[in-house]
Amino acid sequence: xxxxxxxxxxxxxxxxxxxxxxxxxxxxxxxxxxxxxxxxxxxxxxxxxxxxxxxxxxxxxxxxxxxxxxxxxxxxxxxxxxxxxxxxxxxxxxxxxxxxxxxxxxxxxxxxxxxxxxxxxxxxxxxxxxxxxxxxxxxxxxxxxxxxxxxxxxxxxxxxxxxxxxxxxxxxxxxxxxxxxxxxxxxxxxxxxxxxxxxxxxxxxxxxxxxxxxxxxxxxxxxxxxxxxxxxxxxxxxxxxxxxxxxxxxxxxxxxxxxxxxxxxxxxxxxxxxxxxxxxxxxxxxxxxx
Amino acid sequence: xxxxxxxxxxxxxxxxxxxxxxxxxxxxxxxxxxxxxxxxxxxxxxxxxxxxxxxxxxxxxxxxxxxxxxxxxxxxxxxxxxxxxxxxxxxxxxxxxxxxxxxxxxxxxxxxxxxxxxxxxxxxxxxxxxxxxxxxxxxxxxxxxxxxxxxxxxxxxxxxxxxxxxxxxxxxxxxxxxxxxxxxxxxxxxxxxxxxxxxxxxxxxxxxxxxxxxxxxxxxxxxxxxxxxxxxxxxxxxxxxxxxxxxxxxxxxxxxxxxxxxxxxxxxxxxxxxxxxxxxxxxxxxxxxxxxxxxxxxxxxxxxxxxxxxxx
Lengths: 290, 312
Prior knowledge:
The complex is a heterodimer. By secondary structure, chain A is an all-alpha fold. Helices cover 80% and strands 0% of the residues of chain A. Chain A has 11 helices and no strands. Chain B is α/β, with parallel strands linked by helices. Chain B has a 6-stranded parallel β-sheet, with helices on both faces. In chain B, helix 10 links the parallel strand 4 and strand 5 (230-235). Chain B starts with a helix and ends with a helix. Residues 1-7, 18-24 and 36-43 of chain B have low confidence and may be disordered. Classes of the chains: A mainly alpha, B alpha/beta. Chains A and B meet through helix 1, helix 2, helix 3, helix 8 and helix 11 of A and helix 1, helix 3, helix 4, helix 7 and helix 8 of B.
């Protein structure tokens, strides 16, 4: 029963996307079916599910690291750091929320005064502009002063501080690791272990040499060595070979892969909808979930 | 503006442009739109399509999808009647059991992850679940521990269910430990770093990377190399495939990733759908070859050029 309900939910949800794809949301049929409003309902439902999932994720995290701390397993200090970080960031976000709320209230309180001031500034006639500015009441002026002074003063923003000085540098550090890993993986891939590895190594060598000035210098040197006519086509032309490899061989391979992947993706989606794929939703004839 | 008025305006605009479309496809555009306006074939095309190019862009993908769906359904139907096309073996899929057995022999766990892009909104996440379930089943059968780092909380229940079902398939549900399916928050790179730490701590001897991988693919694969794990990967992301090929023992390239679940299950219906896919691709290949030949045969190319000039 449970499996059938899950399957039904998936099929109903997927039906929207299939119909939306087939007829288009902005077409007459799409509008008469109310596809846009259905999308809004699905988005709201998705938000609820995601929020619940986030709660599950946090519970999972706390369970795993809480058990590590309580049982003093190896690396329990790191788990403690996780809790400290979690509550620190939560505190930062609450702080940010309070600041934003104060800003929102200031903006609401000064809205009328700002509208009058901006309307006065927009006046094309200088005389009218002066009159409109002079008509602003002292209370309006005080509100405007408060608003613009607030926005011209530096305020510490916890979220910006956290993102700018913690998250971004850490993410960039991890990203920088990729450079080393790529070099190491390339070294391993280019060892001549088999015919395929040799072909890959040769292709990569042509690509690397042909894509930078060294390829041009080497090609010229080879052609001089071989006694080729410098005004005619070069016998050895690494930049042209690299270009051919990139534009013809690579694009052909990528398009071939892309066609296969596109067809397979649609077929896989259909198999999932039909409940044929084991591991997602599969209903046995007896009805129990596998 | 009322909804009906906007729709009518759009329909009128579509009709006006369809009756006087630019370019060489004018007659086709007019014909298709008239058919659509008559309500004979495809009503939305009448309002949406503005010229022949737009009409074709609207219709061709939908017809293509319908053909693929029809081919897959036909493949499944034929398979139910006992007629399937032979599907070649995928070496990476054949090595699943060996990898988990190796981990068991070494007394080290197995790792499965979909990476830092395994969000619930991507179909690759769903497609990798049969593989996860199979690995869990093998782990259960061989009494091996399976650890699964997950990057997104929405995908966590899916992973937990797949692992639990896999252990249940092997009749070893008591081996399932929910804390071994662990959520690492913070996004792609933080997930990668946390998972790498977990890998270095647990030293898995077999690592499976299946899903929609992005820039973190090499971080995982290199860490697996460092701990001497046997690594099997599969993704349909073109730019990550070279990294996996360079660093993993077996890589499922592109559509092999999509075919893996069928090969693992050996379900004739799934294998039948794979055969249908291959037949469809043969059709696409034939079209490409035909188009290429037509474009290089001088007489045909000249005729097409003349037709274009005449229409323009």
